[in-house]
Structure formats: structure tokens, C-alpha cells
Write a structure and sequence with these properties.
Helix content: 40-55%
Strand content: 15-25%
CATH topology of the largest domain: L-fuculose-1-phosphate Aldolase
Structural class: alpha+beta
Distance between the termini: 58 Å
Number of strands: 9
CATH superfamily of the largest domain: Class II aldolase/adducin N-terminal domain
Shape: elongated
Oligomer: single chain
């Protein structure tokens, strides 16, 4: 059996969490990631019959029974993942009852557990897999500029998406479905998880006002790049929001962009 520290998914998680920390997206123990793994890739590194311990997920996920995830831990700092992956992450499998997570590797201190946002992650995975069977990643973080933008911009998905699209030529191509927006809600609850999952049926990015962002994608690169693009657009907006706007990308030009690149964009978000 191969050394799990050499597994591509472990290395990817280490690199991604380190980058997110360095970008100030995940201060202290803020943020969390769950990455859906295929059984055959896990079996190269672990005895999948050996369960270390179990956790109640706090959510019944019938569509995820038997599925494997590598997840960051509750109370864990992203800056430490790269130094000690086995302490700060775990590989879990959703048990036959749909509500129990079986730990197969990680959280080596014997008391740590998956992120407190695990129910929200599982809800979002279920929602995204129904829309896109290739979806594998759900990522939550607190990017500075998108967080700041939720304080000064109207919290309307159409208006928010349109503003972000205007900030950079690539935006409508990278997230043509726009972004969804939730008002401030208490984090760590099933209520915010359910609301996020509902929005995830329409978009891969859900903004939690005055809190952060949820992003989803086929792999870590795609999901990281998606959030990175949204955050860059928000950065531009925050630099110019107080200034008179002399130029912008017109709706007709956004339409031209989307159609040239062949993306399925939200046509009702444009006036043209």
C-alpha cells in the first residue's frame, strides 16, 4: 500500500490551504474544504475496512452514502495543514445510515473532528451533484474584498452578479451563472446549510453576507480559481466604488463575450 503522504489529493489539499491562508482568505481557524474522493484512489493508500472512529454528521445525506471525502478539521488552522496534514485533516466515509461519518485517516490527536460546517458541505455536495455529477469540491473561506463588498453593495443576486461581471472581462466567462447571495445568517447551523444548498442548485458561488463565500467545482484548481476570480472582481470594485465611473463593460459587450466563449450565462441578468 502506498504512503498516503504522497497521495495527490493530500498534496493538493496542503497546497490549496497554504495558498488560501497566505491570501488572507482563512485567518486563524476560519474556512473549510471538503473534497470528494473516489474509492479506488483512496484504496491505493488506506485499508478502507479499518474505521478509526465515527462522528455524527448532524445531517442525513442519503445520496452520499458510501462516498469518501477528505475534509479539514474543526478548530484547525489552515497555516498548519501543510506542516502536519494528518493532524489537521481527515478522510471520512458516509456510513450506511447516511448520518454517520467513518474516519479512515487523520485527526490523529484522537479528539479532533471534521469541520463544524460539515452538514453545510454535505448539503452543498448533494445539491451540486444533482446539477453536475462531476462536482467534487466545496470550499468555504473569507476573502477580504468580497466580504467588504457585501457591506456596501445591495444584496441582490442579479445586481451583485452584474457588478462583478463588469469588473473584469473574464468574469462572465468564469462564472456565467453569476453568484447567489444570502443575508447574514448564524453560521454552523443546518439552516444556513440548507439555504446555501438551495442556492447551489443555481450557481457554484454563494455569498454569505458579512461572512464569506462558498464555492464548488470539479476539482481544487477549478474551485480555487473560481473564488479567486470573484475576489479579484470584488477587489476592483472596492477600489473604484467611491469614484465616478467613466467607463464600463456594456451589457451588449458582456453578451458578446459570453456567446463568443460559448458559456451558458444568465441572460436575465443582462438588459441587452
Amino acid at each position: 500500500m502506498k504512503d498516503i503522504m504522497t497521495a495527490p489529493f493530500v498534496k493538493e489539499m496542503c497546497e490549496t490551504t497554504a495558498n488560501m491562508y497566505r491570501l488572507y482568505w482563512d485567518e486563524r481557524n476560519g474556512g473549510n474544504i471538503s473534497y470528494l474522493l473516489h474509492e479506488d484512489e483512496v484504496a491505493e493508500y488506506l485499508d478502507t475496512t479499518k474505521v478509526i472512529r465515527t462522528f455524527d454528521t448532524g445531517f442525513e445525506a442519503p445520496d452520499l452514502i458510501g462516498k469518501y471525502f477528505i475534509v479539514t478539521g474543526s478548530g484547525k488552522y489552515f497555516k498548519n495543514v501543510e506542516k502536519d496534514p494528518e493532524d489537521n485533516m481527515g478522510i471520512i466515509r458516509i456510513a450506511e445510515d447516511g448520518t454517520t461519518a467513518e474516519l479512515l485517516w487523520g485527526f490523529k490527536d484522537g479528539v479532533s473532528r471534521p469541520t463544524s460546517e460539515l452538514p453545510a458541505h454535505l448539503m452543498s455536495h448533494q445539491a451540486r451533484l444533482k446539477v453536475d455529477p462531476e462536482n467534487r469540491v466545496v470550499l468555504h473561506c473569507h476573502p477580504t474584498n468580497i466580504l467588504a463588498m457585501t457591506y456596501v453593495h445591495e444584496l441582490d443576486a442579479k445586481k451583485f452578479s452584474h457588478t462583478l461581471w463588469e469588473m473584469s472581462t473574464e468574469c462572465i466567462v468564469v462564472f456565467p451563472e453569476g453568484v447567489e447571495v444570502l443575508p447574514w445568517m448564524l453560521c454552523g447551523t443546518n439552516s444556513i446549510g440548507e439555504a446555501t444548498a438551495e442556492k447551489m442548485q443555481n450557481a457554484r458561488v454563494v455569498l454569505w453576507a458579512m461572512h464569506g463565500i462558498y464555492g464548488a467545482g470539479k476539482d481544487l484548481d477549478e474551485t480555487f480559481g473560481l473564488v479567486e476570480t470573484v475576489e479579484k472582481a470584488a477587489m476592483i470594485y472596492m477600489k473604484i466604488a467611491h469614484l465616478p465611473k467613466v467607463n464600463t463593460i456594456q451589457d451588449s459587450e458582456l453578451k458578446e463575450l459570453a456567446e463568443y466563449f460559448g458559456v451558458d450565462y444568465r441572460k436575465d441578468y443582462l438588459e441587452a
